[in-house]
Amino acid sequence: MTRRTLTAGLERFPIAGTFRIARGARTEAAVVVCTVSEGPFSGKGECVPYPRYGETVESVIAQIESLSDGIAGGMTREELLETFPAGAARNAVDCALWDLEAKKAGRRVHELAGLAAPQPLVTTQTISLATPEEMEQQARLHSSRPVLKFKVGMPDGDAERIEAVRRGAPNSQLILDANEGWTEDNIEDNLRIAEKFGVALIEQPLPAGKDAILREVARTIPLCADESLHTREDLPKLAGLYDAVNIKLDKTGGLTEALLLKAEAERMGFSIMVGCMVGTSLAMAPAILAAQGAQFVDLDGPLLLARDREPGLVYEGAKVYPPAPKLWG
């Protein structure tokens, strides 16, 4: 048997302008790429280390490299899932193993996973946090898009931001992402404003672990767990608090857990959103499989970059197409 090798490295991609959320701003996407090779075949996976979850580029690369002996010894995706913690590092390795399996078998990942062939998806276009005037401008620029997602979560001015985005995009479905930035004191007022302007979904209004009040808060807009959800283990405590869950491969620790999480969440009655960190097409490609049939798709990471990798995913208007084998899977 040919021994497998594992490598991990940092790649940087500039963001078009500045991407800002309630927790801060970035001008580049620092991504970690894992490659698992066996003979003439190589599989790749990309992850985005996220400081919110205690991750850095250095810590994630070290985590990936700690798996070198296990991967060389034939560690499977199932063994990886059982023995390694969820997070960005496991995501990159898991997706690289899927890609390697597909290339060795001469088949596509969806076939190996027993899934139907993926179809093009309608994805959101994200508007980052800014002044109401700037966000209205951005909304107007993308007002032909069927679905817009926009960032809020500041102590002041969110009502004005909500109204401004709706004014700029009167016909788009709107998803609002507070990134844990609202409080028990302002959530009800913000919900009323969001209802007034026809917001379709609100992501993570309160900090993870401090959201028990959601059980009592009256609302007509469904709430979606993001930072509160990582793996299947989190689902029971979210029942009654949230109506939807946002599945991101960097949180689940790969496509393997993402597919299991999606199935369990659907069984429990949650609506499904599949989202992403700001990364390249290599990170989005496996998420497209998880996003098939989801009610909300937020896989616009490459659209926020000044340049993507080549070859990348094909984006046409609001649609994103499944990856070509040369990219992944």
TrEMBL record:
- Pfam families per the UniProt record, alphabetical: MR_MLE_C (PF13378), MR_MLE_N (PF02746)
Enzyme type, top EC level:
isomerase
Tell me its EC number(s), please. Answer: 5.1.1.-
Mandelate racemase/muconate lactonizing enzyme C-terminal domain residues are 132-224
> Record keywords: Manganese included?
no
Q: Which SMART domains did the record assign?
A: MR_MLE (SM00922)
Listed A to Z, the keywords are:
Isomerase, Magnesium, Metal-binding
Stored InterPro entries? DgoD-like, Dipeptide_epimerase, Enolase-like_C_sf, Enolase-like_N, Enolase_C-like, Mandelate_racemase_C, Mandelate_racemase_N_dom
Query: Per the record's keyword annotation, is Lipid biosynthesis included, yes or no?
Result: no
What does the record note about the cofactor? Binds 1 Mg(2+) ion per subunit.
Question: Which cofactors must be present for this protein to function?
Answer: Mg(2+)
Q: Which domain of life is it from?
A: Bacteria
- Record-stated family: Belongs to the mandelate racemase/muconate lactonizing enzyme family.
PANTHER family in UniProt: D-GALACTONATE DEHYDRATASE-RELATED (PTHR48080), ENOLASE SUPERFAMILY MEMBER DDB_G0284701 (PTHR48080:SF3)
Q: Which NCBIfam families match?
A: racemase_DgcA
User: What name is this protein filed under?
Assistant: Dipeptide epimerase
